[in-house]
């Protein structure tokens, strides 16, 4: 195939699943994340099982210099990027006012600025070659009313949706497709990091998808030219429902569900 996919946040969860799916489809890979050992283990497995070339570039996209350095490294190695999966991200479990600005700034850098910059860096050569696929891993949260402790996370995911829509319109007839993939509750370590595993596990089993299901659906969506794709039939039904509910009703529902299923801590709140 001689095409290469760059996946950010590839060390676990949805990013790892995208790497596995793309390797199954014959793409060479560039894996990037902060955890080098995990990336190296995944690279060895995929090279052995799928007979693809896998390059590991350790990077922390919270560093504003990281996107440029990452692409410069690939240029030095003469590795083109035909598929870009902007997956890296994280959540914040405390209220906006109780969280240090440094954490908010990192979230914006990783989930907004780095996504836009990596896309901007990869896009010209995709257009020149007449082929490119860009997946922006957003979230069902980006299509729903805002909820407590989701302040910047949901806003960032909403940005990815609008960014993908606008960019896809700009790129019509270039051979470059852009898709915002919007999963709902996904079985990854995200909820362990957030400390919400025990609470979230109360959700009915049909609400959950595996990371592999999300990656498989998302990759198929971008390949066929979808611009915004919500994974899973239940999530798609929820997205449609929220679009048709009165705004205040939808906001009340989201606030109630957030209180029920999120462990909210306020370490700096006054007593």
Task: Describe the structure in your own words.
The protein has 271 residues and is an alpha/beta fold. The protein has a single domain (4-261), classed as Rossmann fold, CATH 3.40.50.720. It has helices at residues 13-24, 36-50, 66-76, 101-129, 151-170, 190-194, 197-200, 211-223, 233-244, 247-261; strands spanning 4-8, 28-32, 54-56, 83-86, 132-137, 176-182, 186-187, 209-210, 228-230. A 7-stranded parallel sheet has the order 3-2-1-4-5-6-9, with helices on both faces. Strand 2 (28-32), helix 2 and strand 3 form a beta-alpha-beta unit. Helix 1 packs across helix 8 (211-223) and helix 4 runs parallel beside helix 5. Residues 263-271 have low confidence and may be disordered.
